[in-house]
């Protein structure tokens, strides 16, 4: 197992993409703190059912003191912290000229400031340890997307944050990389199959050169690789996992 004896935090892991990431890390031997806004007991139960070790932690990543408490919990519970996956995110889509400032700020607070807090608190510990893996989940939307000015700005910020953290901490044994998922099957995206008799879903499939949506496990596989010692010479990278959709 690539991650045996490693300890990981995955934010936004109560369901969807984050759950897939947490399950994969646990399968590879990591002890996982499954963090989310709501109790993530279901994800923990799935990990334990497969023989893994995990515990849930309730956190609002936009609040620094809660992120600090989350990192402390991981270290106090499992003795260390090796892997930080900043996955938590929300979207409040709308055209730029109509976007309420509240929707702008909320997405920035969770998607960008949350990643900043998670990266910062993890790195404080990892610098002392001389080892660490920070993996931030951005999005293909960081390149710009109609109706997502707030989300695109936040995810572009995540890329800049990641590259800066990588440069600042490379000589401390810490790698920092960003993953940009494309169109991934989750409870939220599967609802498109109900729109216009599935026309919305088929329209998305036409945009993907491989012709089908990805699975959470596809992103989880990349996270596990970047978290492993096999990726020890990879840092400051932005890696697309999108079946060719992101160019």
TrEMBL record:
Source superkingdom: Bacteria
PROSITE patterns: ADH_SHORT (PS00061)
One example of a Gene Ontology biological process annotation: monocarboxylic acid metabolic process
Keywords per UniProt: Lipid metabolism, Oxidoreductase, Steroid metabolism
One MF annotation (Gene Ontology) recorded for this entry: 3-oxoacyl-[acyl-carrier-protein] reductase (NADPH) activity
Start and end residues of each Ketoreductase domain: 6-182
Keyword presence, Oxidoreductase: yes
Assigned EC number: 1.1.1.-, 1.1.1.100
InterPro entries: KR_dom (IPR057326), NAD(P)-bd_dom_sf (IPR036291), Sc_DH/Rdtase_CS (IPR020904), SDR (IPR050259), SDR_fam (IPR002347)
Family membership: Belongs to the short-chain dehydrogenases/reductases (SDR) family.
PANTHER family given in the database record: 3-OXOACYL-(ACYL-CARRIER-PROTEIN) REDUCTASE, 3-OXOACYL-[ACYL-CARRIER-PROTEIN] REDUCTASE FABG
UniProt-recorded name of the protein: Dehydrogenases with different specificities (Related to short-chain alcohol dehydrogenases)
């Amino acid at each position: 197992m690539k991650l045996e004896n490693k300890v990981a935090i995955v934010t936004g892991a109560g369901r969807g993409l984050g759950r897939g990431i947490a399950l994969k890390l646990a399968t590879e031997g990591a002890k996982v703190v499954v963090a989310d806004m709501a109790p993530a007991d279901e994800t923990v139960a799935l990990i334990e059912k497969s023989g893994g070790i995990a515990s849930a932690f309730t956190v609002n990543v936009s609040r620094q003191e809660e992120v600090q408490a989350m990192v402390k919990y991981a270290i106090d519970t499992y003795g260390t912290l090796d892997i930080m996956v900043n996955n938590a995110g929300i979207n409040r889509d709308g055209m730029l000229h109509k976007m309420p400032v509240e929707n702008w700020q909320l997405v920035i607070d969770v998607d960008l400031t949350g990643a900043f807090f998670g990266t910062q608190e993890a790195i404080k510990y990892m610098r002392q340890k001389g080892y660490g893996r920070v993996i931030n989940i951005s999005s293909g939307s960081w390149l710009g997307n109609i109706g997502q000015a707030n989300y695109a700005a936040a995810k572009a910020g995540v890329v800049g944050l990641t590259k800066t953290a990588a440069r600042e901490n490379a000589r401390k044994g810490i790698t920092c990389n960003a993953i940009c998922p494309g169109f991934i099957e989750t409870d939220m995206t599967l609802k498109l199959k109900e729109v216009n008799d599935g026309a919305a879903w088929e329209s998305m499939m036409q945009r993907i050169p491989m012709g089908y949506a990805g699975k959470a496990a596809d992103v989880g596989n990349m996270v596990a690789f970047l978290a492993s010692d096999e990726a020890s010479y990879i840092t400051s990278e932005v890696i697309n996992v999108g079946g060719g959709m992101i160019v």
